[in-house]
Every structure is written in C-alpha cells, then in structure tokens.
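Reopening this ticket.

The earlier resolution said the output was attached, but the attachment link was broken on my side. Pasting everything inline this time so it's all in one place.
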Amino acid sequence: MTSISDPAARLRAHGLQVTAQRIAVLRAVETCPHSTADRVAESARTEIGAISRQAVYDALGLLAEHGLIRRVQPAGSAALYDPRTGDNHHHVICRHCGAVADVDCAIGDAPCLTASHDSGYAIDEAEVTYWGTCPMCRASSIVQESTNTESEHGGTD
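Inline output:
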C-alpha cells in the first residue's frame, strides 16, 4: 500500500483521478480520524480554500467506495470517516462526549465474519460498536461526583 504521505499516488493506485478536492478530503480523514463530513469539510477548506459541501460528500463516497477510507455509521449518530481500512477493527464510542477510538477485533480477521447462523447471506463485513465512557469523561465525572458529595455534606474542612 502507498504511504499516507502521498495521497495522489494512493488515488492513482485505486484508479481515481487526482484532484485537489480528493487530496484535501483524504488528508482531512487521515489527520482527523473518525470525523463527520462537516469536520472533514472544515479541514479541507483550511487546506485548499473553497470546497462545496457536495464536493466533500462526493469525495467521501468515492473514497469509501474504493476502499481508501471507511464509512462508519454508529446508531443515532452522523456518519464518521475512518482512514484505517483493510483490517477487521471495531470502534468504541463515549456516550457523553462522542469520542471515538479504534478497537482491534478480539477474535481476529475472519471469525467475526462467520456468523452462527447467516440466514443464507454471503457475509462480507462485521461491524461492532462498543459504547461506554471515555477516560476523560470518567475522570470528569469522578471530579464532579466528588464536588457534589462535598457540597452535600458541607464541603471539606
């Protein structure tokens, strides 16, 4: 695979025309993993100036279709775009702040794609999303709980 430092070569390797918009969108996803399309658009505009929302969506769709990025759609959330492709990884999402992190598959590559009952489907992808509280929010809630407890009991002496 071509290195992250040469997005034009990566586009060409996947048979795609190289455009400033596609390079900017690819770089945005790679520098800000798990971003929404709006965040990708902000980052791309910082790099190249003007780019329409439609051009961003078109580029994201094309890049995902060709396997250069991965589109992740957590339940109840906007689609997120992930530069990590070609492996069997999952995601963990904070219920409080929305932070997203990659989680390697506990089983490995193919076993996740072997369902106990496939109902006749030819399964080609498995997506697991873990939900919880990130370390920052956990630390913040511990501080908040401590502050609340102190004020309920008259503070500390």
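Reporter confirms the inline version is readable. The chain has two domains: 1-86, 88-157. Residues 113 and 124 are 7 Å apart (CA to CA).
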